[in-house]
């Protein structure tokens, strides 16, 4: 059987990088990946630097990729401060333009295109605006708010009408994995917070608010789901939520996080990491030097906008008894299971996995036992 040829957009990001790693280890797939800044080299993957805002460059480079059969589109543009950008019409149009610049020349060239995977998230259910149904289901009517998800989805649906290729939309919740400089990954901001407190001989105090219940997904599990969606006919033009399959709360996870970082849990100390952590730039640079880390000394280069993401996921500002209690954010994965995807991951094991991975790569200090 001829190899499937997959093109992955957003290769330097959390999801795109995992997709490249996953498909590159499969014998029957040939991988090309594009991103503005290239990730570290991956065996059996062709990495190409392309800025998706550069329409002409996309035409020149992507317009030549006539043998592509499958696509994973994991590129996204975020604004400084992160959360405000989610409601910004300019940011929405920017993300639509990136997809158009990428896909217009590709579809014109790739005559044997079979499948496209597009990423959304729980903002599709309005999770960034207020409480969502419990659990949120894919079959619910589209949540009426402005979102680049809808712009991209409508564009792709219009492109697909009457064509032999199909698409699948995946909606992961709180993706956890290997990436630095990203905007939506909890491992770097927690790792920085923990490292700075450990060097100051302080315990790992939870910086957020009232307890909440939520879900996460291991990025490697999400990559497996992308492979499943790409080759499963039942996934054609369908949308699926993606989670580990369990639920989590910081009350339960925080001791495991502390243990993974070689620390003790301290009493809660609510703080906005996005405000407090940049004040410790010098301490982080000293930690990188002291432990000879293979990590940027510049905090923003390491964490991106993920301090803002962590503050949101830690429910900073919510208090039990004040009426400001974070509502559970849960989505149903029944549809994916009924369609045949059954892989799962224990979320506590996942946290250990990725902190250890960062320590092995010398992206975080080692744990002294």
Characterization of this structure:
The protein is α/β, with parallel strands linked by helices and 369 residues long. The protein has two domains: 4-172 and 218-242, Rossmann fold (3-Layer(aba) Sandwich); 176-215 and 247-331 and 345-360, 3-Layer(aba) Sandwich (Rossmann fold), CATH 3.40.50.720. It has 13 helices and eleven strands. The chain has helices at 14-24, 55-61, 89-109, 148-160, 187-199, 219-231, 250-260, 273-276, 281-290, 299-303, 306-313, 334-339, 347-360, and strands at residues 4-9, 29-35, 45-49, 70-73, 115-119, 166-172, 175-176, 204-205, 217-218, 238-242, 265-266. Strand 5 (115-119), helix 4 (148-160) and strand 6 (166-172) form a beta-alpha-beta unit. Mean pLDDT is 92; it is low at 321-325.
Tally of individual domains: 2
Helix content: 25-40%
Question: Would you tell me the structural class of the helices and strands?
Answer: alpha/beta
Average pLDDT over all residues: 92
- Which superfamily, in CATH terms, is the homologous superfamily of the largest domain? NAD(P)-binding Rossmann-like Domain
Summarize the structure.
By secondary structure, the protein is of the alpha/beta class.
List keywords for this structure.
369 residues; alpha/beta; Rossmann fold; 2 domains; 7-stranded parallel beta sheet; two-stranded parallel sheet; 13 helices; 13% strand; globular
